[in-house]
Amino acid sequence: MKNFFTLIAILFLFCSCGSQNTTLPNKGKSPSMESNARPKLVVGIVVDQMRYDYLTRFDSKFGDGGFKRMIREGFNCKNNHFNYVPTYTGPGHTSVYTGTTPKYHGIIGNNFYDKEIKEMVYCAGDDSVESVGTAHNAGKMSPHRMQTTTFGDENRLFTQMRGKTIGISLKDRGAILPAGHTANAAYWFHGLDEGLWISSTFYMNDLPQWVKDFNATEKAESYLKEWNTLYDISTYTESGTDENTFEGGFTGKEKATFPYDLKALSKDNRGFDILKATPYGNSLTADFAMEAIKAENLGEDEITDVLAVSFSATDYVGHNFGVNSKEIEDTYIRLDKDLERFFEYLDATVGKGEYTVFLTADHGAVDVPSYLTSVKVPSGYVDRNDRKEKFNAFLKTTYGSEGIVENISNDQIFLDRDKVKDLGLNLIDVQNTIAMEQLGYKNVYKVYTATTMSTSGFSTGLEELLQNGFNQKRSGDVILVNDPSFIPYGRTGSTHGSGQNYDTHVPLLFFGKGIKHGETFDKTVIPDIAPTISALLGISFPNSATGRPLGFVID
Ligand code: ZN
Ligand code: ZN
Ligand code: ZN
After folding, report:
1. Could you tell me if 361 and 507 are in contact, meaning their C-beta atoms sit under 8 angstroms apart?
2. Which domain holds residue 342?
3. Residues 235 and 259 in one domain
4. Ligand having the closest approach to the CA of 322
5. Ligand 2 centroid distance, CA of 320 (Å)
6. Are residues 220 and 346 in the same domain?
7. How far apart are CA 211 and CA 192, in angstroms?
8. Closest-lying ligand to the alpha carbon of 331?
């Protein structure tokens, strides 16, 4: 009898499980509906050095198909910020795609001091791989220093490597870090006498035929032409005068004024590299990205692909001419046209409403301090040599030698911890003593120690940003912050790197499949982007993502 009831019970369980298995899929959306709901292609666009106010300042000059199309059809996060220091290109691109900050992803600068090998390293440099497409060393690159995954990586894992990921940028780091560890390819531009799109053996042993064909078209050559303003320069009322003392300009041309004969100037400005500091660098990037979509069949089937495109020319133009220049205004007007062309291409190939785009930046930029000073805004230039001299004298009198400091980079002081031990000193005491000394120096605004960063929890202000940028294994012992609008830089052009609003406030636009129409002034942060795209795709978040999915942008 007992066996009989057991048998009945087992049969009952078996049947109910069986019936559950057959009925479950019908309860919700069918799997095919789920996959139809995903975009065929996600395009991430990073505009290098794009401040939020470029969207509003140049608004009257933009057409309907570029930035304004994204705003009109999509979602505009108007209070979007970087939530860490330092705001550089390598950390910026990494944070957008990994959904976290240098504290976790490990890219603490473009170049940073490696405490283990005691050398400066480049964020995307990798001597274990070779260049592909050039004999120069410019291809010896990979994402190996990035310690966490990107949403592209998670999409690759989710789709059993069937969804492709490709990264494209004039800058190696702008292509490599967004594309992630599992990318099919990353391509970047090698200027000088070559003007070629290249890659590394991390991805492939030979360039695909379509890249070779593109390189053979001499498209890059065709942009070595005259650069004049797209519209009559007298209508460029949103920027300063063309001729002023705040701009760098090109070698071989006395004044930084339009027009620029790029062909003639290229000889004294590193050949094809001159394109990087003109809007044509962005046009060339768009041309190449469209070719990649066609040749790699991106967005062709239901399995989501990821294309990471970074427009880097904006950064070079900003560094050279400054955020208030006519050159910057023209560069954004022309980028708007390139975006329009790019979106129209996506409509035609992937299909309207079948792809999703986000657009953001890797950092903002400060107005040229010499310009700000001329209009009475507190600003200026940090004298690093003066600081170093004082500091070395202090180290000698206090510790008997300068050798206790191993490296100073990215406004961080790295101590030789073995030497600290050998001298019988307490590490925390040394950190604090140095921090107090530094705080007395000109234009030093704030100073924190590694111990403070590791033992206190900050949830507001600059301290929170510093902590999000602080990586225990990679960051220095003492961290400095310069006065607002004071930069260690030349007297012309703009730069970035701080935690001030001019460097942290950047656009965040979403549009396309699965995106609502709307706008918000609620604060969003860069690490929110990757979890939002992951949520849209229904895939795992990048493994160390700290951001949150922006539910209000998803339809
Ligand atoms: Zn950048
Ligand atoms: Zn100018
Ligand atoms: Zn830059």
Report:
1. yes
2. 40-109+119-373+498-537
3. yes
4. 2
5. 10
6. yes
7. 18
8. 2
